[in-house]
Write a structure and sequence with these properties.
The protein folds into two domains: 147 residues, no CATH class; 245 residues, no CATH class. The chain contains 16 helices and seven strands. The termini are far apart. A hairpin with a 4-residue loop joins β2 and β3. The chain is mostly helical and 418 residues long. The C terminus is likely disordered. Strands 1-3-2 form a three-stranded antiparallel beta sheet, sandwiched between helices. InterPro entries: DUF2786. It comes from Micromonospora coriariae. This is DUF2786 domain-containing protein. It holds the Pfam family DUF2786.
Length: 418
């Protein structure tokens, strides 16, 4: 009588290979099960247990629940992602040692929770929810497990559950402690910017949000400088999925640079890693999410304004538009930050503020060198002059000067228009 763990192992090995017929034969063996009365249930349990072990092994390798969910959705689709969420919930139930608050927050955002009474019924319950017959459910589960077990190590941004420092990372960040009111104002401004149909109003609202963010960043820097704290810069990962992944990575880079952060793009994994101080990371995430919505809306408006007969190269035009938009917005966000720095230096004194900002910037760059020693720069080419011009204009219709009125990872660089 075959062992269920051996059946699962054989099926995984066959799927990883190149013999399609062998993979189907092993899937048939999973369908049959062990031959015992509860043989299929034993196979389901073995699949779930191996999936739980697989996700648990990812945490010391830098992965977080949100990362795993995003990549599973990207590679295999929402159905597999929902199976992974069930495995996340089951694995969380078994976690020993301290679990940071941000970890449980990610699980809540994913709605990863235990909905079953018996682990032996998880796969059957999941397949019923998805409307799958048994053979398709087994095929999906095996493909999901193959993906989970094949993921490479990535940068460890925060101590995972059960490790030294995990409990400490559960305390609120500086942004959450002292900037919740500011963040609500920023969110409100960005929501208005996303909803308006007037580009000038959208950019003015975004500029005001950046001004508030820059002032808060300076306040946080001065507050931290006056306290005896051993904090290190942290990091977040932002999705850069197709289409136009390179343009999205460039937008991350520009927003990060305007907010004293560094960004590294992992194209093969579909995300950019942003390194910086807590308040600045919150700002980058908020701005990137909003500006991506605004850029997409501006791109669609720009398409409608194109001259007749120019629609044969829509994809090339779109990409050039988004690249230009990202660069121009980045320039204006940095100008807003620079203006806030000058105003703060006049108030606090340059001899007090500038060394603090320089030290924080050096700490972020040191963190970058530690986590990504092999980083390379990537030049983005612009292949449509009309799209470039339209994207620049879309980002330049209103002044943002509100103060005066696995493969090598890449840091997106400035494109080379040609």
């Amino acid at each position: 009588m075959p062992d269920p763990d051996e059946l699962v192992a054989d099926a995984l090995a066959a799927v990883r290979g190149t013999d399609v017929r062998q993979a189907e034969r092993q899937l048939d063996r999973l369908m049959v099960g062990t031959g015992a009365a509860d043989g299929t249930t034993a196979v389901d349990t073995a699949l779930l247990r191996r999936l739980i072990r697989g996700v648990a092994r990812l945490w010391p390798r830098g992965w977080q629940p949100a990362d795993l969910d995003r990549l599973t959705t990207r590679r295999l689709g929402a159905r597999s992602a929902r199976l992974v969420r069930d495995a996340l919930a089951a694995q969380r139930r078994e976690q020993a040692g301290p679990v940071p608050a941000w970890w449980d927050e990610q699980l809540r955002e994913l709605a990863a929770e235990v909905w079953w009474d018996d682990d032996r019924s998880v796969l059957a319950g999941w397949s019923a929810r998805e409307g799958l017959d048994r053979v398709d459910a087994l095929r999906t589960a095996v493909d999901t497990l193959v993906l989970v077990e094949s993921l490479p190590p990535i940068a460890v941004l925060r101590p995972p559950p059960g490790t030294t420092g995990a409990a400490a990372t559960g305390r609120p960040t500086g942004a959450a402690r002292s900037g919740s009111g500011m963040l609500e104002r920023v969110r409100a401004l960005l929501a208005k910017a996303e909803s308006t149909t007037f580009p000038a109003e959208a950019e003015a609202l975004t500029a005001k949000a950046q001004e508030l963010i820059a002032r808060h960043s300076i306040d946080e820097a001065l507050l931290a400088a006056g306290a005896d704290r051993g904090d290190l810069p942290g990091g977040v990962r932002l999705g850069t999925d197709a289409p136009y992944a390179g343009a999205k990575a460039l937008l991350v880079q520009e927003v990060a640079a305007a907010n004293r952060c560094e960004a590294v793009w992992s194209d093969d994994l579909g995300f950019a890693t942003v390194l910086g101080w807590p308040a600045d990371l919150v700002a980058v995430e908020l701005l990137y999410t909003s500006l991506l919505v605004q850029a997409t809306a501006a791109m669609l408006r720009g398409r409608a304004e194109r001259r007749p007969g120019a629609g044969r190269r829509t994809r090339v035009w779109d990409e050039s538009f988004l690249n230009a938009f990202a660069l121009r917005i980045g320039e204006r966000l940095r100008a807003t930050t620079d203006a806030a720095d000058r105003a703060a230096a006049e108030t606090a004194g340059p001899e007090r503020l500038l060394p603090v900002l320089a030290a924080r910037g050096a700490a972020v760059r040191e963190r970058l060198d530690t986590l990504f020693p092999g980083v390379t720069r990537h030049r983005l080419s612009v292949r449509d002059a009309e799209g470039w011009s339209s994207g620049t204009s879309a980002a330049d219709r209103a002044s943002l000067d509100v103060g005066g009125g696995p493969p090598p990872r890449q840091v997106p660089g400035r494109p080379d228009p040609r």
